[in-house]
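User: quick one, fold this
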Amino acid sequence: MTLAIEVLPDPAAVAARGAAFIAAAARAGVAATGSFAMAVSGGTTPWAMFAALGALPDVPWDGVGIWQVDERIAPDGDDERGLTHLLASLPTAAAGRVHAMPVGCLDPGDQPALDAAAAAYGAGLPPAFDLVHLGLGEDGHTASLVPGDPALDVRDLSVAITGVYRGRRRMTLTYPVLDHASLALWVVTGAEKARALRKLRDGDSSMPASHVNARERIVLADTAAASRL
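Assistant:
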């Protein structure tokens, strides 16, 4: 499946381009169908992208739904939570459109409660996402689909609970949801991502990110991340 890669000078340019891309997609989606559903990941550059998105004119927030791609199982307001930074980055009109993963009160050791929360979030997802925003880890993970984790093999659920990764268990959308999206948009910055981006371009099957098969796949990368292409 084709992967389009657009290279920009630096993280700020990537953030600005990503914001413009999402705004245009949201305008087109709402104009065509009355709604636009997107799922978003965390990270420093994406937070800048969401802040830039809020500064753009005529984004039809009333028709936009925002879901989380993944989230660390940690208390509400914790600095490690993607939601904490997402809400701080988005404008007020957009923050009110966020459907947060229900992890704030969960015990990471209580598997039945974790599974029930994942199922509840999955039940509230749209039939298909218009756009899924993704990151790319140095180890090739995307969403919280990390090498060796059992969540990689979950095909009968929309949302899964991972094992411990970098100190936290996580809730994540699964491949069937990502694959059913109209567009997967990766935002990738930094030289430490260069090897993973090259493997993604080459379709390296050892990387979880390479198994995302949305109908359209686009990468916005800075020159540092693209240095090995």
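User: anything notable?
Assistant: The helical segments are 11-33, 44-54, 82-89, 92-95, 111-123, 175-179, 194-202.
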